[in-house]
Amino acid sequence: MSHPIDELTQQKLNKLAALRSAGIEPFPYGYHRSHTAVEAVNTAQNNKDALLTQEFRVNVAGRIMAKRGMGKTVFMDLRDGSGKIQLFFRINNFSEAKFNTVKDIDIGDILGAQGKLFLTRSGEPTVEVSDFTLLAKSLQPLPEKWHGLVDVEKRYRQRYLDLISNPDVKKIFETRSKTISAIRDFLNKRDFLEVETPVLQPEAGGATARPFITHHNTLDRDFFLRIALELHLKRLIIGGFDKVYEIGRIFRNEGISVKHNPEFTMLESYETYADYQDVMKTVEDLVSSVCQQVHGSMKVEYNGQTIDFTPPWRRLEMRQAVMQYAGLDYEQFPDTASLKAEMTARKMQFDPMRERGKLIDEIVSTYVDPQLIQPTFLYDYPIEMSPLAKKKPGSDHIVERFEAYCGGMEIANAFTELNDPIDQRQRFMKQMEDREKGDDEAQKMDEDFVLAMEHGMPPTGGLGIGIDRLVMLLTNQTSIREVILFPAQREKID
For residues 471 and 423, is the Cβ–Cβ distance under 8 A? Predict the structure, then answer.
């Protein structure tokens, strides 16, 4: 016996063949709509009395999501990108042959319908259809009506079904689009210039991460998919732009979790003559402004908590944060060996291949991050964690860097940018030493970037914001895959 879905598909194929035999094209060209579904609904609701004496005719088009009744009358729910409206078919409005084709319309078909608006006895805006056109015949069944698409892996793998079956998912991505637009509005009004930089790069720099590698046939050389936007944007600062930003895709060949996807979206911005304190103010102003524009409030509900983005945000020195939440003062352990020994004594879990900076990062991720629910700036980082940040005045081992946290996760990272080319070269050399010790995420030497810096780079404040995580907060989603339309998936095995 064949699978039930196969039988349903065969029934649809039989209907497709019957339509073509009757001279009906099941995949015609364009169709003129006079109204979206919501516009038609609003027209009916705004003219309740006039509907009794006047005809309000509309042409609507969309996917059939429900079908009720047979015999001499049929009701259908039609949904387009704006929303839903009910269609009403009755035999009196059609020839017998035409009405028989109504019975062959399946849930999932795309239909164009024209007719007059009226309100049912329950007050539901409805189109009494006088003519209709099949615009696309569906050949696969939709998920079961009452439960929608609930298989998580299938939702991500077949996102189109997720969007069709779960209307709330569509709202998430509408909010994502509004968020990105609001970020652009904010930066453009502050005279930042939006630019584009290469995705394929000869060296993967600007972050500590494993890159994806690809090969360019014509040039016969390997390239890396970018792991950050930073180094090319800084080249533009050196070239004379005062304020630049880019919203772009980043690729990191690393693990997948509820907070990590190997392909994600970053905002990076750079402003001359600014330091990390200036950038802190920019971040809290930007995020609170975006939240207000998207939500109409600076407060959002996230994972059972009310988060308030209203400035000013809490500021907490990193050393104090680790002492407060982990009970450890890393300043007392100035090298990798002593810090490993202390972590071992405390029975802390850590990767034995990590150097001191990565070990501190693990401590922060385990003990500090989960405690930072309300917007918080962690600032002043150990130099080992920040090879591209400027040293704090009077210190050889602390740099002017902050990260912004909210909802228990990092959402932004910023520096007073290092602009001393000699210091930068030495830090790249230290990173190369770490690579030789087995740290495959450590940065490589970028000679061209150092050469650019040797021509003079002005004091600069740099910022990176994870768009996906910000959208998670604004849409109350605890998994990054819920806010990425097509997240990375394992190969499907039948």
Answer: no
